[in-house]
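Might I ask for a little of your time on a matter of protein folding? What I wish to show you is a protein chain and, alongside it, a tokenised description of its three-dimensional fold. I should value your view on which stretches of the chain appear to form regular backbone elements. You will find the record immediately after this paragraph:
***
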Amino acid sequence: MHSSTVELDKQTMLTALIETFEPSKHSYDTCDTGLGRKAICLIDKQLWFGSDAGMDLPKNQLIKLSLELKDYQIELDVKGLYNPSWNNQLRKEQFKLEKAEIGYTLTGNFSDGAGAYSVQWLIVNQGSIRIAIKGANCHGKLVQ
């Protein structure tokens, strides 16, 4: 397991836990891409992000991402997020925190060199909700 901490500013930190993907601990389903080949579309019965359409399983998985904002620790939803970086470390340049009408939005851009995707969370008080994922799913179509 790899731990990674990113300082967004003096009062804001992100801490991630990334672990090596172990196929024996997961189930996966395939689908027809419509291009004459199959791809892994579901891992543990969920859409997943972090790979180009194909039969390659992910190398690693983002299992925890928490935002320390001022004096609060806020857990972010990371279900289905794989291969977040090429070296199991997150970088400040991958994230953008912006003030919203209420609360903040945090956008994270993830990729290990292929299968790039973007995730956006809404942060309000001490809670969060994942509001968008943009990237290619197993059919090569944009998912939002």
